[in-house]
Design brief:
20 strands, twelve-stranded mixed β-sheet, alpha/beta, 549 residues, four-stranded parallel β-sheet, elongated
């Protein structure tokens, strides 16, 4: 075996910020340099620096990166001792916990890391790694000292209540933490709403319900007010559950806490039903969404095949990522055409959608179409121009399913003079509101426990999630730098095309152009094509890239 591929304990070398990565305004991947509490009083307030509702992180920072032999790179997460170097440590209470006494080597080795890329050539560099999650032998909080809070932000997602439950029960049962607050109504709840005392008894059966018992909202992020509330309430562990926008907000909260020199750990748990968060294998709620989507697809199929020239159209969520539509289609086997944002399509002319629909109606007498909510945005914006944003700053997407249904009716009824029966089903809010299924419930437990272990061990400014099956602590900026999307030049999309027998709606020149664009935007795309697998998380490049908070 080549020396570069041999397995050995890396000899770590920490980057010297003055020699390795000069602090520049255009270098967006960073973690703040330590600021003492005394120096923070002389700096301007976050609101004066434009923090309010902008959620931008300061640029006087450098990456926290460790390198080793053979091209080993560790993208580490911040720790409380980075800016509070004299903190005492305590034995982990799990050492005397009877539930864990039978587990061999329960504590994670301090040098354990998780590789982002596991399919490599023998001479490939070892690549990017993340710190492995799990309990440490020493913790930086005493049980009686901990005052934790939990907040949920953004849209609903199956499994939210399970994460809340497991955070409360995990803190209580594993670390004997008694003071846990639930922040009502998202970020604005820190300063505008009441709090809910959370105990294992209060959250005992909430995993059986959909939604979140804490309530949620979009927007409302005022960094100064939020951190003031954290400081005034004596909170020292903050658990933030939400999507990429929420994680950006958590990163800003961490930066302000660090600027003030507070002993407060900030841990994020990524939540998006769309599975559009990068780096991690998948997001919680995704499996439940795919499973529930089967009911809508089955209903559309029954309606379509029960009449002559029946057309069933199902719109599934996903915004700009078509994972739910793709996996629901593959699982169903009843779908004849799947349309996602990553794969442009056109309606008129040879090879267009109308031609394919007519072909399937003549051959089978019916057709089932699944369309992701962000598909066909170019087409719909041309006919129905509209530009609105929600409270989180996301573009408000128009109902592409309804738009497509009306256009199909108009084309076949008026232009082709064909009698068709079309049924349109939009199960979006039915899917979002269900509780997590068995798979997601187990996954939510692992995410919650990973976050707890990290915060107790003094890590902060991180989010948790599985990377190639192993849970890890990931810098906030890595999960907010871009969106995870379906790679249509990959084998998973080819499997779908084979299952539905639909055309790609792309000519070879367009495919070649997309491959070239993907290579330019993300060097990992080349490795994905070589591997031939559309791994669900479409991970980022093996070498560290710049990212902004």
């Amino acid at each position: 075996m080549a020396s570069s591929a041999s397995i050995s304990r890396p000899r770590f070398r920490c980057f010297d910020p003055t020699n390795s990565y000069p602090a520049t305004l255009d270098h967006p991947r960073y973690f703040s340099s330590a600021v003492s509490p005394s120096s923070s009083s002389s700096s301007s307030s976050p609101r004066e620096n434009g923090f309010r509702d902008t959620m931008e992180i300061s640029n006087n920072s450098v990456p926290k990166i460790v390198t080793g032999e053979g091209g080993y790179v560790l993208e580490d997460v911040p720790h409380l001792v980075d800016y509070l170097p004299d903190l005492p440590t305590y034995p982990n209470p799990l050492q005397v916990n009877p539930s864990y006494s039978v587990v061999k080597q329960y504590f994670v080795n301090a040098d354990d890391t998780v590789a982002q890329k596991i399919v490599v050539h023998k001479d490939s560099p070892r690549g990017t790694h993340f710190r492995r999650s799990g309990p440490r032998q020493k913790v930086y909080f005493e049980s009686d000292e901990v005052h934790a809070c939990i907040v949920t932000c953004g849209g609903l997602c199956p499994g939210l209540n399970t994460v809340i439950r497991e955070l409360v029960c995990g803190l209580n049962h594993m670390y004997h933490v008694k003071r846990i607050l639930g922040i009502e109504g998202g970020y604005r709840g820190f300063y505008a709403r009441n709090t809910i005392p959370l105990t294992p008894k209060v959250v005992n059966d909430i995993h059986k319900r959909g939604g979140t018992i804490l309530g949620t909202s979009r927007g409302g992020h005022d960094t100064s007010k939020i951190v003031d509330s954290i400081q005034d309430r004596g909170i020292n562990q903050v658990y933030v559950i939400g999507g990429d926008g929420t994680q950006k907000g958590a990163a800003v909260i961490f930066e302000e806490i660090r600027r003030r020199g507070l002993k407060v750990a900030v841990a994020g748990i990524p939540k998006t039903i769309d599975n559009d968060i990068p780096v991690i294998d998948k997001s919680f709620g995704f499996d439940s969404a795919v499973e529930e989507a089967q009911r809508a697809i089955n209903a559309a199929h029954v309606e379509a095949e029960s009449v002559e020239n029946g057309i069933g159209v199902v719109k599934l969520m996903g915004r700009y990522s078509g994972f739910i539509a793709m996996y629901a289609t593959l699982a169903s086997r009843d779908v004849d055409c799947c349309l996602i944002p990553e794969s442009p399509f056109y309606l008129e002319g040879p090879g267009g959608l109308y031609e394919y629909i007519e072909k399937r109606l003549k051959e089978d007498g019916h057709i089932v179409i699944v369309i992701a909510e962000g598909a066909g945005e170019v087409l719909i914006s041309e006919s129905l121009p509209k530009d609105e944003q929600d409270a989180s700053g996301n573009k408000v997407l128009q109902d592409v399913g309804l738009w497509l249904s009306e256009n199909i009716k108009d084309h076949f009824s008026k232009r082709r003079k064909m009698n068709i029966t079309l049924k349109y089903i939009d199960p979006t809010y039915m899917i979002r509101a269900i509780p997590g299924n068995a798979s997601d419930n187990v996954y939510c437990t692992l995410l919650a426990h990973s976050a707890i272990h990290g915060a107790m061990a003094g890590y902060t400014g991180f989010t948790v999630g599985p990377v190639n099956g192993r849970h890890a602590y990931i810098p906030f900026c890595r999960v907010t730098e871009r969106q995870n999307k379906v790679v249509i030049t990959d084998r998973m999309w080819a499997r779908l095309l084979s299952s539905t027998n639909q055309p790609s709606f792309l000519d070879p020149k367009v495919v070649a152009k997309k491959v070239a664009e993907t290579k330019e935007e993300d060097t990992e795309a080349e490795a994905q094509l070589l591997d031939g697998e559309n791994h669900i998380e479409a991970t980022a490049a093996a070498d560290p890239k710049d990212c902004s908070g």
